[in-house]
Write a sequence for this structure.
C-alpha cells in the first residue's frame, strides 16, 4: 500500500487537484492543462520498478492518454479557428468527444483499458475506474453530439456485457464492468449532471468495496476464489456486493440504475432502456457466476491454509457492505 | 403376339398412318378453300351458361393432327422392334394411343373446358409413360413431370372458373370483348403460365430432361414433338388474347433464357438422350419466344418442322442405345458411322436439319425466325439470346456428331454393331423423308404470301457466322476425350451451374421441400426433444459465449493498432469536417 510512501502521496495529491483544475476551468485550454497534469501524476503512481507489468502499463497509459490529449488539443485549436466565424459543426464535436471517450476508456476506444488494468494493483485500478473518469466525463458533458453519444452508449453496454463473459481475470472483469457502467454514466450525463453525479458516487462506492476487498484478500483471478479459505462473512460480503454492483433490486446498486431508467423513459429513449436492462442481466449473470461457483458449488476447503485479516479493515468492509445492502431500504426511512 | 404378322403395332401403325393421310387430304382441301368448321355439342345448360364440347377444324388443327398421327404411327411401328422383348407391349401401345387421343382432344377444341380434357389426359398419360420402366429413377422423374404439369392443370382450372364470369368458355367468340377487359389480363397470365409448365419454360424446365427416363419411342413422340408443344399450341390458339400484355413480354425473356440455358446445358451433358432433350428445350424456347414476339404462324411452322426431325433424332438415338447394350453415355460411343451407316445417315440429316443447314426442314423455319428477329424492333439482349442460342445449337450438334461418329469406339474391345433391323429403319426413313421435305412443303403451303425480309449483308450472314463459330467450338470440344485432363474441374462451380441447367432440377425438387424439412427437423430437435433449451437459456448462453470469444479475438491485437485506429478515426472525421460531407 503506497499510502504510506510520501512520494506517491504527493502524486496522489496532484492527481486529485489536477482533476479540480480541469473541471473548474473556464477555458478548453485549462481543461487540457488539467488533463495533462493528471496524466503525469498518475504515471508515477502506476509504475513500480519491481513489477514489469506495471511499468508496461504505465507506458501504455502514457501513450493512449497522450494521443487522446493531442487530439483534444488539436480539436480545441481547430475550434479556435472555427469559432471566429461562430461556426460549430457536428464533426468537431465528434472529434472532441472521441478524444474524451478515449481518455475515459469507453468503447470503441476502450481496447487499452483491459490491457492496462491487467498490470495495475487493485488500488490503481480503483483510481482508474473511478476518479480518472471524472474529468473526461465532465468535459464531455460541456458539449456533445447526441447521436454519436447514443451510439457510443449502446456500444459500451454491449461490449461491457459481452466482453466480460469469458474473462478469468478479476481485474479485467472489473474493467468490463466499468465499461458497461460507463454506458450508464454517459447516458446519465446526457440527461443531467446531477444524475450523473448521483450514479457516479454510488458506482464509486461499490467499486471501492470491491477493490478494497479484493486487495485485502489479494485476489486477481477467478480460480483464487475457489481455493481461498475465507470467513463466511467475507463470502457473503463479496456475493452481496457483486449483486449490488449488478443492480439487483433490494441493494443500493439498483437505486441509481432505477433512476436512470426512469429518466430515460421520461426522455422517450425506450430502445436504450431495453438494451440497458437486458445487458445488465448479462452483467448480473457473470457476477453471479463468479460467486456462485466460488461459494456454493466448488468450494475447496483447505484446512492448513488460513488468511488473517486485520480487524479494523474488516470492520470497515462490514460497515460499507451494510450500507450497500441496506442503503436503499434505509434511505426510504428518511422521508417519514 | 409380337411374332404375328398383324401385331397390335402394325395395326395401330396402319390406322394412324391412314388417319394422317386423311388429315393431310382434308388439310389441303381446307387450306385451298379457306374453310373453318366448328362443331358444338351442348352437354348441359343452366342459368344461361352452357357447357359445350366443341370441335374446331381449320387448316391449323388438321395440319397439326396430321403431324401427330404421322409421328405416332411411325413411333408405334418403331416400337414393334424397340420394345420387342417387352412383356406388356399391349399396355404400352394402348398408353401411346391414349396419348394420341388426348392430344387430338387438345388440338381440336377451342373451348377451355374441352382443352382441359385433353390437357389433363396428356399429363396423366405422360406420367404413366415416364414411369413405364418401373424403377426408382423413373418414379422420381415421373413424379417431377406429373407435378410440374399439375401446376399447369391447376392454372387452367382457375382460368375455367374465372371465365365463368364471361358466360361462356368458347373464348374464340368473345375475343374483341375480352381484349378490352382488364381482368382478362390475369386470365391470360394464367394461360401463359400453364403453357410454360407444359412447354417446360424456365422455372419449370427441370422435368423435360428428367422425363428421358421413359422408353425412347415415348421420348420421340411425347417429349420431343407433341406433349411439349401442347403449350406452344395453346398459346398459338390464344394468341389474340395475349397480344401486347405484360406477361407476354415476360414470356419472351423467359423463353429466350430457356433457349440459351438449354443450349449451354446440352454442351455439358454426356447422356445421349438428355442432350437431345435439352436441344428440344432449346427449340421450345425458340418457338415460345418467336410466339411472344407476336408471330404465331412462324412458331407453328417451327413447331411442325421441329417435330419431324426431333422425333427422327430420338429414334436414331434409340437405335444407338440398343446397339450399345443400353448404354447412353456418349463418351463410350464413337466411330459408329462405320458400322451403322443408315442410322448415321438419319442422325446426321436430322442433326443438320436441327442446325438449319439449307434446304432441310429446320432451315426454312429457323432461318425465317431469325431473320424476323433481326427485322423486328427488340432490344439487344433478346437479339443476343437468339443468336447465341443458334450458335449453341450448332455447338452441341457438332459435339454430338463428333462424339458419336468420328472418334474410336470406346465401349468394348470386341463388338459387333448390327444395323439391319428394318422395322426401325423403315420407320425412320419415313421421318427422314419428312425432315428433308417438310420445311419446304410447309413453307409453300401455309404462308399465303412470303415474308418480305430486307437486311444488310452482315446481319443476313449473322446466322452463318454464329453457326460456323458454334460448329468450330463443337469440333474443338469433342477432341477432349475421357482420358484427357478434364478442364471442367478447373471451373468446377461454373460448370456445375451451367451443366445443371442453372440448378433448376435441384430447385424444383429439393428446393421446394428442403427448407421445410430442415425447419421441421429443427423444431423436433430443439423443441420436442430439446425442451426448447436452444431457444431459451442454453441458446442465449451459447450465442453470448460465441460473441464473447469473437470479441476476445478483437481484443487480442497489437497495442499500436488500437492507437493507430483511433488516429485514423480522427483523421476521417477531420476530413469529413473539412470537406463538409
Amino acid at each position: 500500500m503506497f499510502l504510506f510512501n510520501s512520494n506517491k502521496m504527493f502524486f496522489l495529491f496532484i492527481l486529485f487537484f489536477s482533476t479540480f483544475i480541469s473541471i473548474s476551468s473556464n477555458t478548453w485550454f485549462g481543461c487540457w492543462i488539467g488533463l495533462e497534469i493528471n496524466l503525469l501524476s498518475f504515471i508515477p503512481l502506476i509504475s513500480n520498478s519491481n513489477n514489469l507489468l506495471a511499468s508496461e502499463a504505465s507506458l501504455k497509459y502514457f501513450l493512449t492518454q497522450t494521443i487522446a490529449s493531442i487530439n483534444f488539443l488539436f480539436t480545441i485549436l481547430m475550434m479556435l479557428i472555427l469559432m471566429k466565424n461562430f461556426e460549430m459543426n457536428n464533426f468537431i464535436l465528434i472529434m472532441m468527444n472521441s478524444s474524451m471517450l478515449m481518455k475515459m476508456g469507453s468503447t470503441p476506444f476502450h481496447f487499452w483499458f483491459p490491457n492496462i488494468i491487467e498490470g495495475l494493483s487493485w488500488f490503481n485500478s480503483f483510481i482508474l475506474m473511478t476518479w480518472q473518469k471524472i474529468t473526461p466525463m465532465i468535459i464531455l458533458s460541456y458539449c456533445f453530439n447526441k447521436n454519436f453519444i447514443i451510439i457510443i452508449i449502446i456500444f459500451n453496454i454491449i461490449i461491457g456485457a459481452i466482453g466480460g463473459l469469458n474473462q478469468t481475470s478479476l481485474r479485467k472483469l472489473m474493467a468490463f464492468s466499468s465499461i458497461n457502467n460507463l454506458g450508464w454514466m454517459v447516458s446519465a450525463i446526457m440527461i443531467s449532471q446531477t444524475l450523473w453525479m448521483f450514479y457516479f458516487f454510488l458506482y464509486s462506492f461499490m467499486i471501492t468495496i470491491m477493490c478494497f476487498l479484493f486487495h485485502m484478500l489479494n485476489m486477481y483471478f477467478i480460480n483464487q476464489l475457489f481455493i481461498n479459505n475465507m470467513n463466511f462473512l467475507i463470502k457473503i460480503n463479496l456475493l452481496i456486493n457483486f449483486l449490488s454492483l449488478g443492480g439487483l433490486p433490494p441493494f443500493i446498486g439498483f437505486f441509481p440504475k432505477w433512476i436512470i431508467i426512469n429518466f430515460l423513459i421520461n426522455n422517450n429513449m425506450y430502445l436504450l432502456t431495453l438494451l440497458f436492462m437486458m445487458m445488465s442481466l448479462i452483467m448480473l449473470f457473470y457476477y453471479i457466476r463468479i460467486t456462485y461457483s466460488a461459494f456454493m458449488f466448488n468450494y475447496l476447503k483447505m484446512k492448513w491454509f488460513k488468511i488473517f485479516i486485520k480487524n479494523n479493515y474488516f470492520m470497515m468492509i462490514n460497515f460499507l457492505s451494510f450500507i450497500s445492502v441496506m442503503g436503499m431500504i434505509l434511505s426510504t426511512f428518511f422521508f417519514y | 403376339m409380337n411374332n404375328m404378322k398383324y401385331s397390335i403395332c402394325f395395326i395401330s401403325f396402319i390406322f394412324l398412318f391412314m388417319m394422317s393421310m386423311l388429315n393431310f387430304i382434308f388439310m389441303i382441301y381446307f387450306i385451298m378453300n379457306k374453310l373453318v368448321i366448328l362443331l358444338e355439342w351442348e352437354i348441359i345448360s343452366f342459368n344461361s351458361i352452357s357447357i359445350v364440347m366443341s370441335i374446331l377444324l381449320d387448316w391449323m388443327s388438321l395440319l397439326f393432327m396430321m403431324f401427330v398421327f404421322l409421328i405416332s404411327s411411325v413411333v408405334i411401328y418403331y416400337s414393334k422392334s424397340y420394345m420387342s422383348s417387352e412383356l406388356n407391349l399391349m399396355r404400352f401401345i394402348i398408353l401411346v394411343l391414349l396419348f394420341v387421343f388426348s392430344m387430338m382432344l387438345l388440338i381440336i377444341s377451342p373451348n377451355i373446358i374441352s382443352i382441359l380434357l385433353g390437357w389433363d389426359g396428356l399429363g396423366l398419360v405422360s406420367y404413366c409413360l415416364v414411369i413405364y420402366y418401373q424403377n426408382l429413377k423413373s418414379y422420381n422423374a415421373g413424379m417431377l413431370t406429373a407435378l410440374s404439369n399439375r401446376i399447369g392443370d391447376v392454372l387452367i382450372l382457375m382460368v375455367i372458373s374465372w371465365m365463368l364470369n364471361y358466360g361462356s368458355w368458347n373464348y374464340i367468340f368473345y375475343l374483341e370483348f375480352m381484349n378490352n377487359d382488364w381482368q382478362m389480363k390475369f386470365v391470360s397470365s394464367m394461360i401463359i403460365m400453364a403453357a410454360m409448365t407444359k412447354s417446360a419454360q424456365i422455372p419449370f424446365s427441370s422435368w423435360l430432361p428428367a422425363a428421358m427416363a421413359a422408353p425412347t419411342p415415348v421420348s420421340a413422340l411425347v417429349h420431343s414433338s407433341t406433349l411439349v408443344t401442347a403449350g406452344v399450341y395453346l398459346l398459338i390458339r390464344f394468341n389474340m388474347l395475349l397480344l401486347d400484355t405484360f406477361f407476354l413480354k415476360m414470356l419472351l425473356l423467359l423463353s429466350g433464357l430457356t433457349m440459351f440455358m438449354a443450349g449451354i446445358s446440352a454442351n455439358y451433358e454426356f447422356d445421349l438422350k438428355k442432350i437431345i432433350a435439352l436441344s428440344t428445350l432449346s427449340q421450345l424456347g425458340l418457338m415460345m419466344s418467336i410466339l411472344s414476339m407476336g408471330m404465331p404462324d412462324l412458331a407453328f411452322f417451327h413447331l411442325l418442322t421441329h417435330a419431324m426431325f426431333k422425333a427422327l433424332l430420338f429414334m436414331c438415338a434409340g437405335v444407338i442405345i440398343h446397339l450399345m447394350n443400353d448404354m447412353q453415355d456418349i463418351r463410350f460411343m464413337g466411330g459408329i458411322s462405320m458400322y451403322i451407316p443408315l442410322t448415321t445417315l438419319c442422325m446426321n440429316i436430322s442433326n443438320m436439319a436441327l442446325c438449319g443447314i439449307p434446304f432441310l426442314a429446320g432451315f426454312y423455319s429457323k432461318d425465317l425466325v431469325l431473320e424476323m428477329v433481326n427485322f423486328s424492333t427488340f432490344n439487344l439482349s433478346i437479339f443476343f439470346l437468339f443468336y447465341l442460342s443458334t450458335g449453341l445449337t450448332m455447338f452441341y450438334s457438332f459435339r454430338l456428331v463428333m462424339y458419336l461418329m468420328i472418334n474410336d469406339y470406346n465401349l468394348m474391345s470386341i463388338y459387333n454393331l448390327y444395323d439391319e433391323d428394318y422395322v426401325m429403319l423403315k420407320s425412320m426413313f419415313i421421318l427422314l423423308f419428312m425432315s428433308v421435305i417438310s420445311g419446304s412443303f410447309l413453307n409453300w403451303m401455309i404462308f399465303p404470301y412470303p415474308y418480305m425480309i430486307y437486311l444488310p449483308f452482315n446481319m443476313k450472314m449473322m446466322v452463318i457466322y454464329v453457326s460456323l463459330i458454334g460448329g468450330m467450338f463443337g469440333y474443338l470440344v469433342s477432341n477432349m476425350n475421357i482420358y484427357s485432363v478434364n478442364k471442367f474441374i478447373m471451373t468446377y462451380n461454373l460448370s456445375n451451374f451451367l451443366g445443371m441447367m442453372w440448378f433448376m432440377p435441384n430447385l424444383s425438387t429439393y428446393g421446394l421441400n428442403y427448407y421445410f424439412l430442415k425447419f421441421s427437423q429443427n423444431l423436433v430437435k430443439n423443441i420436442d426433444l430439446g425442451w426448447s433449451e436452444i431457444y431459451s437459456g442454453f441458446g442465449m448462453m451459447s450465442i453470448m459465449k460465441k460473441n464473447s470469444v469473437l470479441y476476445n479475438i478483437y481484443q487480442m491485437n497489437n497495442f499500436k493498432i488500437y492507437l493507430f485506429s483511433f488516429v485514423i478515426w480522427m483523421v476521417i472525421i477531420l476530413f469529413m469536417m473539412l470537406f463538409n460531407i
Q: What stands out?
A: Chain B has a mean pLDDT of 89. Chain B touches chain A at residues 544-545, 547-549, 551-552, 554-555, 557, 559, 562-563, 566-567, 569-570, 573-574, 576-577 (CB under 8 Å). Chain B is about 70% helix and 5% strand. The beta strands of chain B are 37-46, 49-57.
